Amino acid sequence: MEFIFDTHAHYDDPAFDADRLDFLKDLQSCGIKGIVNVGADIKTSQLSTEYAEHFNNVFAAVGVYPQNVGNLPDNYLDILEELAQKQKVVALGEIGLDYHYDTVDKKLQQRCFEEQLELAKNLNLPAIIHSRDAAEDTLAILKNTKPQRFVVHCFSYSLEVAKQLVALDCYFGFTGVITFKNAKKSVEVLKELPLNRILVETDCPYMAPEPNRGKRCDSSMLRFTVQKIAQIKGLQNLEMIKSLNKNASEFYKINI
What we know:
Blueprint: E1 4-9, H1 20-25, E2 32-38, H2 42-54, E3 58-62, H3 76-84, E4 89-98, H4 106-123, E5 127-132, H5 135-144, E6 150-152, H6 159-166, E7 171-174, H7 184-192, E8 198-200, H8 222-233, H9 237-252
Parallel strand pairs: 1-2, 2-3, 3-4, 4-5, 5-6, 6-7, 7-8
Helix pairs in contact: 2-3, 8-9
C-alpha cells in the first residue's frame, strides 16, 4: 500500500473535538503518510505548531486567513514570525483574499496578504494561498510580491487564470471538489496543468469527496480525490500517488 500525504488539513476545527487525537496519532490507519495542519488565525496557528510537536507525521503552517484579519493585534507579524521558528513549521498559511462575503475590508485584506507574503519571503517559507472571488487582485499582488514557492489551495478559478499562475510557478491544490459532477471548470484546469505542479489536499473537515459529499471530511477520504485526479491525468493510482507525494516533498522541503 502506498500512503498519501495530505497537504492541507484543519484538525484544529471543533468538528474534530471528539476524535482529533485518534486521527493524529495513527494517520497510517487512514492510508495517510502525513499532513500539514494549516492555521487560519493566531490561535489555530499555535495549535498547529503544538500538533506538529506532539505527532510524528504532522507538520504545521501558520498564518491568518483573509476573513480573520479584522481584529489582529498590531504585532501579529511578530507573533507569526515567532511561531514560524518552531520545529516542523513548513509554510505560511493560509493567507490571501476572500471577496465572497462582504464582511472584511478589501484594502485590509490586501495589506495583510502582502505583509504575510513578505514574511514568507523573509523566512524562506512557501505560502499557502486562499483566493475566492478575488482572482484579479490575487494575481496583481503575487506578481508584485511573490514568495519563492506558493500554492493556491482548493483551486476554483478558470483555465485562463490558471495559465497566468503557471507563469508565476504556482502550485495548485485540489480537494474533493474535483469529484463533484459540477466541477467541470476544475477538471478542465487539471487536465492542462503540469504534473509537477499538482498537490492534493482534504481541507478537512470541509470538501468531502464523493461518495461522502456533505459529510465531515477527514484524511481517510483523500484516496477518492487521488483516484479522480489519476483518472483525469490518465495515470495509475500508484503512479499518481508517487507524483503527488514528490510534489508535496519539493513544495514543503520535507522528506515524504
